Each structure stands twice: as structure tokens, then as C-alpha cells.
């Protein structure tokens, strides 16, 4: 089984905790390869971090690999970053979700594997995980559940956890989705934080190109209601257990959506009470409050301490306090002006 990550090195605690959780959950990390993608110099910082804290300490060196990639020009063009260069250096969370390469690189991973690795080393399929997640069950169980149903032969290139909901998605414009034949009343949305991707199918179906098409279109017509890399998936894929309606006139100008398979909800459970966490296969700390924050809930801190040393947590808390004091100092200076 192969697992990919796209967290940059500033998420030190999150990356190390996630890798440790994969080692513990799998029981045999020699059978699970982890690939950490880093943009340019940040890949070097990931290597340094792993040398100090991870290689043969929490994970076998041979199965923990850093993939150094260059900034993707096609992504910058689609997102309009070239027209707004300030997006390359922004620290605003909403703008980062919209423009940060690391937030979108999951869709480039199949191509990057093909470009950077010899055929015998390339994963055929992989589980993508956001850095605000923890693996609590052997990931090979998920592979066993879905891998045979995915591929060029079935036309199913992607899997995502079922998201139980009584409401259909509000992220996309209903008029556009209906024109494409997507039955929105049955489409409760998906979460891009955990994905299962078949490389050959992804490339052959031009999934990346279709996602970029929608990202580019959003610049001019605001196709979807929220920024970030998740919304284009609603137009690029639809649940394989539903049947597309007949497309409406004009739908031919849109890329054809492809089916995705839904796997069990337990593989992407939003964090909550300990009873919820204990029944999860993957726990997802979605939202702005993360378990490595100094003001995180007691429950989330308790879970995280299973995978991170107290020394590393203390180091992280000091950094957060320093940043808070610096921000508070700047605010006080502005108030005086």
C-alpha cells in the first residue's frame, strides 16, 4: 500500500504524528510506503526533519520517501496566481486554500510519479491523506476494500469516503450541475482530505486537466461557492452508485464527469467525542482548530499524545505563543497610530 502526503515542513508536528499513526496502525510499516511531497526547497526541509525525527526512528527509511517537485505553472495559470503574484506569499488561510500549490498537488501526484520514478517503483494506486488526519486502522484494509473495483477497466479512478447527510451539496451551482446531468438531490458531497486514486486511470481520464479546467473557469464565473481544491471535484466526479440524468442543452461545453467510488464513512471521520474517534479508521481534524494547537480540546490533545513526544509538543506550543505575542504587539502598535 502507498500513502501520499502534501504537507509543507511548517506542519512539523502534524506530519510526524501522521507518519507515526501509519506505523502503529499498519503494524508492519515495511509493507506501507509513505511519500511526502515538497515544493522545491521545502522538500529539503522535509528531508532534514525526517533525518532528525523520523528515518528509522518512527518509520523505516526505505519506506519514507520525499518527492521534490517544481512549482506547477499550469496550476498557477488556472488559479490566476500569475495575475495576482501576492498569492504566492500570502499567509491568509482562505487565500492559501485557494492558491497554495501544496493544497492542489494531490491532483498532480500520478503524473509526478510517472515523471520522477522508474516504472518498477511507481505506485499503481495510493491513499492521499491531509496532514490534519491520523490513521487508526491498517490502511491495507481500505486497499482490500476498494482496489479491485478501481482502474482503467472499470472507469473508476478515485474513491472517497461516504459523507452521510440529509442535504445535497451547496458547494456548486445547481444550475451547472443539473445541466451536466449530475443528480444533486442524491449527491451529498465528498471530502478531498482522504482520497484513493488509481494512477493509470487518473492519467488516462485526464482527471487533473478536468479539475484545472473548472479551477480556471471559476476565475470568471464563480462556478463554486468556496475557495480551495475540493470544490472542483463536485464537477469532475459523481458517485458511482447514481446514474447521470440526460444532460441539458449546452452541457457539451463542460468536461464530462467521471464516476467515483464511495468507501465506508469510517475512513474519514470528523473529529469529535472520544467515542466517535474510537470507532474511526481515519480521524480528520477538519476546520481551523487543530489538535496540535495550544488551545485544542482536551480530547484531541489526548489522542495526539499517542503519536507525538511531549518535547515536540512543548516546542510547538512555544512557537505558537511567540507568534501570538508578535501579532498582539503589532496590533497594539496599530492601535496607537
From TrEMBL:
Entry similarity comment: Belongs to the glycosyltransferase 8 family.
Ranges in coiled-coil conformation: none
Gene3D superfamilies noted in UniProt: Spore Coat Polysaccharide Biosynthesis Protein SpsA, Chain A
Annotated protein name in UniProt: Hexosyltransferase
InterPro entries membership: Glyco_trans_8 (IPR002495), Glycosyltrans_8_dom-fam (IPR050748), Nucleotide-diphossugar_trans (IPR029044)
Alphabetical keyword list: Glycosyltransferase, Metal-binding, Transferase
Domain of life of the organism encoding this protein: Eukaryota
Tagged with keyword Glycosyltransferase: yes
Amino acid at each position: 500500500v502507498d500513502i501520499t502526503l502534501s504537507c509543507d515542513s511548517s506542519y512539523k508536528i502534524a506530519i510526524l504524528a501522521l507518519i507515526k499513526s501509519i506505523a502503529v496502525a499498519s503494524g508492519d510499516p515495511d509493507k506501507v510506503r509513505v511519500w511526502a511531497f515538497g515544493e522545491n526547497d521545502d522538500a529539503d526541509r522535509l528531508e532534514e526533519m525526517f533525518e532528525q525525527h523520523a528515518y528509522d526512528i518512527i518509520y523505516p527509511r526505505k519506506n519514507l520517501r520525499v518527492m521534490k517537485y517544481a512549482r506547477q505553472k499550469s496550476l498557477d495559470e488556472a488559479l490566476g496566481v500569475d495575475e495576482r503574484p501576492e498569492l504566492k506569499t500570502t499567509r491568509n488561510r482562505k487565500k492559501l486554500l485557494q492558491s497554495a500549490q501544496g493544497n492542489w498537488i494531490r491532483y498532480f501526484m500520478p503524473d509526478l510519479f510517472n515523471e520522477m520514478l522508474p516504472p518498477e517503483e511507481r505506485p499503481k494506486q495510493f491513499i492521499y491523506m491531509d496532514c490534519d488526519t491520523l490513521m487508526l486502522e491498517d490502511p491495507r484494509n481500505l486497499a482490500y476494500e476498494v482496489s479491485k473495483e478501481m482502474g482503467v477497466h472499470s472507469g473508476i479512478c478515485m474513491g472517497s469516503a461516504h459523507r452521510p447527510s440529509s442535504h445535497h451539496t451547496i458547494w456548486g451551482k445547481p444550475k451547472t450541475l443539473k445541466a451536466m446531468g449530475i443528480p444533486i438531490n442524491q449527491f451529498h458531497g465528498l471530502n478531498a482530505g482522504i482520497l484513493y486514486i488509481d494512477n493509470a486511470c487518473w492519467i488516462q481520464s485526464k482527471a487533473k486537466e478536468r479539475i484545472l479546467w473548472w479551477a480556471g473557469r471559476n476565475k470568471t464565473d464563480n462556478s463554486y461557492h468556496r475557495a480551495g481544491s475540493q470544490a472542483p471535484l463536485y464537477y469532475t466526479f459523481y458517485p458511482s452508485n447514481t446514474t447521470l440524468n440526460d444532460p441539458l442543452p449546452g452541457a457539451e461545453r463542460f468536461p464530462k464527469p467521471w464516476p467515483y467510488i464511495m468507501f465506508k464513512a469510517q475512513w474519514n471521520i470528523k473529529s469529535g467525542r472520544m467515542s466517535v474517534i474510537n470507532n474511526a479508521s481515519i480521524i480528520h481534524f477538519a476546520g481551523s482548530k487543530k489538535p496540535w494547537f495550544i488551545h485544542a480540546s482536551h480530547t484531541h490533545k489526548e489522542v495526539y499524545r499517542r503519536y507525538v513526544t511531549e518535547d515536540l509538543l512543548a516546542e510547538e506550543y512555544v512557537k505558537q505563543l511567540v507568534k501570538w505575542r508578535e501579532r498582539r504587539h503589532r496590533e497594539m502598535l496599530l492601535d496607537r497610530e
